[in-house]
Design goal:
By secondary structure, the chain is an alpha/beta fold. It has two domains: 3-138 and 322-337, ATPase, nucleotide binding domain (Nucleotidyltransferase, domain 5), CATH 3.30.420; 148-318, ATPase, nucleotide binding domain (Nucleotidyltransferase, domain 5, 2-Layer Sandwich), CATH 3.30.420.40. Helix content is 45%, strand content 18%. It is built from eleven helices and ten strands. The strands form two sheets. A five-stranded mixed beta sheet has the order 3-2-1-4-5, sandwiched between helices. It has a five-stranded mixed beta sheet with strand order 8-7-6-9-10, with helices on both faces. β6 and β7 form a beta hairpin. The longest helix is centred in the last third of the chain and has 27 residues, at 255-281. The protein is globular. The structure holds adenosine-5'-triphosphate (ATP) and magnesium ion. Adenosine-5'-triphosphate (ATP) binds next to α5, α6 and α7. The site of magnesium ion has 4 residues, from α5.
Length: 355
């Protein structure tokens, strides 16, 4: 039987099934994590395996795209096997395959997309091409299975900083975005300047825990601007200039104080704009997601502000802040429910935007 005929039968079978029992195999290879997961009913994670390439890229101080693609190719089938095994499933007991198709590194994305297409074709399964950023939003659905739109979402990852109004599962309105660097990118760049190991974010946070956040009055981007856009390039330049001047004068700087002051500026910028958007949009729920949502100072500041305003806040469990395939499985399940099945001509789109 050809793929389209057997896919039609499979989709009919899925429609007749209790949606809570539908099992999705999900694959994520957009950057430097090779990940696979099995998710049941969109929100129950049966397994989630993440094979990180940090050790490989750390000697270069950042992700090397070609090395990332090759590594995905080497380990992906083992990671998928491990996810199926841990979930007690096999290819034949899976209902659909979800895969990140963008945004991300094109070569890295292609490894996952090609592999997922192969499984979909071989097993006559629906293929679901997932937007990685929508995946990050879904990390909160997995952690908080009762969470439903509408809510406001702050997405802070390595490549994105967005303030998004989630009006429905597939109704996303971007209210604000960074005009230059993403929050995670700024952490990584300043981390490198301060000599902390890659990835800068978590290691800079550790360094900052020993420093004084008021030691340096770094600028808070977009403070006096209307709207909800963000910027971190002025802050980055201020840190670079301060370090440069101190070196020229032969002054010693306390790296922990610089880290703590930088982190405080990022956190204040994010919190101010997010709560402005929350207040203006009339939302009473705020979800934060993406790698930077693991940051303790950000979590504390958001919780403090939420307690003052009465908003309810949601953060992903630590294992779902950074890249993982469980969030892709959750997003894939939502696509399957609304019939948004991808064709076998699905392509990787490195600059895929949000709706
Ligand atoms: N505790 C932390 N504090 C600050 N930043 C952190 C922390 N933990 C991780 N990060 C940052 O999060 C980023 C990684 O997050 P994530 O995996 O979501 O990004 P990405 O997948 O590379 O980018 P994107 O999701 O935008 O495509 C890195 O920039 C990392 O430094
Ligand atoms: Mg990510």
């Amino acid at each position: 039987m050809d793929y389209s005929k057997s896919l039609e039968n499979k989709l009919k079978e899925i429609r007749n099934k209790d949606a809570r029992k539908v099992k999705i195999l999900a694959i994520e290879t957009s950057c430097d994590e090779t990940a696979a997961a099995v998710v049941r009913g969109g929100r129950k994670v049966l397994s989630s395996i993440v094979n990180s390439q940090i050790a490989i890229h750390s000697k270069y101080g950042g992700v090397v795209p070609e090395v990332a693609s090759r590594q995905h190719g080497l380990v992906l089938s083992k990671v998928v096997d491990a996810a199926l095994c841990e979930a007690g499933e096999e290819f034949d007991s899976i209902d659909a395959v979800a895969v990140t198709c963008g945004p991300g590194l094109v070569g890295a994305l292609l490894v996952g997309v090609s592999y997922a297409k192969g499984i979909a074709l071989a097993k006559s399964l629906p293929l679901l091409g997932v937007n990685h950023i929508e995946g990050h939003i879904c990390s909160n659905y997995i952690t908080h299975p009762r969470l439903k739109p509408p809510f406001l979402c702050l997405i802070v990852s390595g490549g994105h900083s967005h303030i998004v109004l989630v009006e429905g599962y597939d109704e996303l309105k971007v209210l604000g975005r960074t005009r230059d660097d993403a929050a995670g990118e700024a952490f990584d760049k300043i981390g490198r300047l301060l000599g902390v190991p890659y990835p800068g974010g978590p290691n800079l946070e550790k360094l900052a825990s020993r420093g004084d956040p008021d030691a340096y009055p770094f600028p808070r981007g977009m403070k006096n601007e209307q709207g909800y856009d963000l910027t971190f390039s002025g802050l980055k330049t201020a840190v670079i200039n301060m370090l440069h001047k101190a070196r020229e004068k032969g002054q010693k700087v306390n790296a922990a104080d610089v880290a703590a002051s930088f982190q405080a500026a990022v956190v204040e910028t994010l919190v101010e704009k997010t709560f402005l958007a929350l207040c203006k949009s009339g939302m009473d729920k705020l979800a934060v997601c993406g790698g930077v949502s693991a940051n303790g100072a950000l979590r504390d500041a958001v919780r403090r502000r939420a307690a003052e305003t009465g908003a309810k806040v949601y953060f992903p469990a630590p294992e779902y802040c950074g890249d993982n395939a469980a969030m892709i499985g959750c997003a894939g399940h939502l696509m399957l429910l609304r019939g948004a099945v991808s064709g076998l001509d699905l392509d990787a789109n490195p600059s895929l935007g949000l709706n």
